[in-house]
TrEMBL record:
Family matches, as PANTHER family: FERREDOXIN
Protein name: Ferredoxin
Keywords per UniProt: 4Fe-4S, Electron transport, Iron, Iron-sulfur, Metal-binding, Transport
Domain 4Fe-4S ferredoxin-type as annotated: residue spans: 3-31
Cofactor: [4Fe-4S] cluster
General function of this protein: Ferredoxins are iron-sulfur proteins that transfer electrons in a wide variety of metabolic reactions.
Keyword Glycoprotein: no
């Protein structure tokens, strides 16, 4: 089973870094916070690049 990417909206500050890095997976949702709209939209490497750009580390892998 593959991992699922999630955003902890309690930690997200709405900086849009993940959307800029990986718009195939992330978008801005309610409250101008990041959300995962297409978890299969990019490779794990590309998603991890977005994780690395997040200043508050709110993007997580869930098994």
């Amino acid at each position: 089973m593959s991992r699922l990417v999630t955003v902890d909206i309690d930690v997200c500050i709405g900086c849009e870094a993940c959307v800029e890095t990986c718009p195939e997976v992330f978008s801005m949702g309610p409250g101008d916070l990041a959300q995962v709209y297409n978890p299969d939209g990019a490779s794990e490497d590309k998603i991890e690049e977005a994780m690395d750009t997040c200043p508050v580390n709110c993007i997580l892998w869930e098994d």
